[in-house]
Specification:
It contains 10 helices and 10 strands. It is globular and about 55 Å long. The model is unreliable at 1-11 and 13-34 (pLDDT under 50). The chain is of the alpha/beta class and 283 residues long. A hairpin with a 2-residue loop joins strand 9 and strand 10. The strands form 2 sheets. It has a 6-stranded mixed beta sheet, with helices on both faces. It has a 4-stranded antiparallel beta sheet with strand order 2-1-4-5, covered by helices on one side. It has helices spanning 74-80, 111-117, 132-142, 149-162, 166-169, 182-195, 212-225, 238-244, 262-267, 272-278; strands at residues 36-45, 48-58, 63-67, 91-99, 102-103, 118-121, 200-204, 230-234, 247-252, 255-261. The longest helix has 14 residues, at 149-162. Helix 3 (132-142) crosses helix 4 and helix 3 (132-142) packs parallel to helix 6.
């Protein structure tokens, strides 16, 4: 982590208002110690380096926000946590990413199992061309996680309730998911991720395409889920990071500049660069 300056005065204070599958390793359950450990991570898109020696430990059951200007590596880092970058031709990396003490880039790790344990919610909601019910049931079915139709229905209902969507859709579960509003579609995608019982939920600017009312509902939902899940969110909205996150990591040109509890960072950042970004002097 780059050296930082002495503590700065509270420039951000105004934002704080409120192989054989049978032989593959199984990801261990979340332990009471750190869930996600990133060590000496360097990442490349062919010859272009996007991340430089990132070291970061994210505590369990909390919301961590990744902030920084566009192109600074936030989303790239987020996608390393469930190996979504594996689908991009020509990428490479060095270093390790561990969940529950296990290196998720081990050749023996079951990537499908990893992505069940580490759910992803994208910037633009992406419901399947199916009914509301079938969207939430999809992962349960393909993973064989229920033994009866009743159990399947119960799991779908529970996931929709967790996503604060059940009362709005319970009378139209068999209708197309495309009939939902943008904010409802995003909560449906969250319910779909929750249905398969993940340990970690990654969110890549989940509110950037939503209006303020829908954004508030998503933020309230994240706060409700905190404690039961470890949540990592990429956001360009400083007010959002201040409102919902317990910890914040600030990135600049692929480097982790500062990481710490959100209140301290926003009230008294160590780095002058962090204060300049939070207060809108650049970015």
């Amino acid at each position: 982590m780059p050296a930082s300056n002495q503590g700065r005065s509270g420039g951000g204070a105004a934002l704080l208002q409120s192989p054989n599958p049978d032989q593959r390793d199984k990801l261990s359950p979340v332990k009471s110690t750190a869930v996600i450990e990133i060590e000496q991570l360097n990442f490349y898109y062919r010859k272009t380096q996007a991340l430089f020696d990132v070291n970061l430990t994210l505590p369990p059951g909390e919301i961590t926000a990744f902030i920084g200007p566009s192109g600074c590596g936030k989303s790239t880092l987020l996608r390393t946590i469930n190996r979504m970058n594996d689908t991009i031709p020509g990428v490479s990396m060095t270093g390790t990413v561990k969940i529950g003490g296990q290196n998720i880039y081990s050749s023996s790790l079951d990537v499908v199992e990893l992505r069940r344990r580490v759910g992803m919610v994208f910037q633009k909601s992406n419901p399947f061309p199916k009914s509301i019910f079938d969207n939430v049931a999809y992962g349960l079915r393909i993973n064989g996680m229920t033994k009866s139709r009743r159990e399947l229905a119960d799991r779908v209902e529970r996931s929709l309730k967790q996503a604060a969507l059940w009362d709005e859709v319970k009378d139209r579960l068999n209708q197309s998911a495309f009939g939902l509003s943008g904010g409802q579609q995003q909560r449906l995608c969250i319910a779909r991720a929750l249905a398969v019982q993940p340990q970690v939920i990654l969110m890549d600017e989940p509110c950037s395409a939503l209006d303020p009312v829908a954004t508030q509902k998503i933020e309230e939902l994240m706060l409700d889920l905190r404690g039961n899940y470890t949540i990592v969110i990429v956001t360009h909205n400083m007010q959002q990071a201040a409102r919902i996150s317990s910890y914040t990591a600030f990135f600049w040109l692929g480097k982790l500049i500062e990481f710490g509890d959100t209140e301290t960072m926003f009230m008294n950042p160590e780095s002058e660069m962090t204060e300049d970004y939070i207060t809108g002097r650049f970015g």
